[in-house]
């Protein structure tokens, strides 16, 4: 006992020694707090990573816009015959910049469809 405290004061503020169930509850409470804090940190980390990817995408799009616009205007300036030479029709010009756009297959010399750029085996 501390000499500065009387026996009455000590009994007023005495803390009971926790039993086993109380200690287990306290351990579980602290584990739940740590799990909650980890989930919050993961959510914040995910948010800022997504924000960063969005900003990179926006920057790339803005930076590539002049080249894409110039290419679009150049394709629109071509005649239908010139477009046919490169395997496009006028209606596909706007689709050229879509990520899933694929050039149509050209007919091979034997009448079968062959992918663009494929050569006939000799």
Strand order of the largest sheet: 1-2
* CA-CA gap between termini: 103 Å
Radius of gyration based on Cα positions: 36 Å
Biggest β-sheet strands, sense, barrel: 2 strands, antiparallel
Number of helices: 3
Question: What oligomeric assembly is this protein in?
Answer: single chain
β content, as a range? under 5%
At a glance:
With 122 residues, this protein is mostly helical. The protein contains three helices and two strands, in the order αααββ. The C terminus is likely disordered.
Describe what you observe in this structure.
With 122 residues, this protein is mainly alpha-helical. It is 57% helix and 3% strand. It contains 3 helices and 2 strands; from the N terminus they run αααββ. The chain has a two-stranded antiparallel sheet with strand order 1-2. A hairpin with a 5-residue loop joins strand 1 and strand 2. The protein is rod-shaped and about 105 Å long. The C terminus is likely disordered.
Provide the fold topology:
Elements: H1 7-12, H2 20-77, H3 80-85, E1 106-107, E2 113-114
Antiparallel strand pairs: 1-2
Q: Any descriptors?
A:
single chain; 122 residues; mainly alpha; rod-shaped; disordered C terminus
């Amino acid at each position: 006992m501390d000499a500065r405290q009387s026996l009455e004061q000590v009994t007023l503020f005495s803390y009971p020694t926790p039993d086993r169930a109380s200690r287990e509850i306290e351990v579980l409470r602290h584990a739940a707090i740590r799990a909650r804090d980890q989930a919050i940190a993961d959510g914040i980390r995910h948010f800022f990573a997504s924000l960063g990817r969005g900003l990179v995408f926006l920057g790339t799009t803005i930076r590539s816009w002049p080249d894409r616009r110039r290419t679009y205007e150049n394709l629109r300036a071509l005649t239908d015959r010139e477009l046919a030479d490169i395997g496009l029709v006028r209606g596909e010009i706007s689709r050229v910049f879509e990520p899933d756009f694929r050039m149509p297959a050209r007919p091979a010399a034997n009448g079968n469809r062959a992918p663009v750029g494929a050569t006939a085996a000799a």
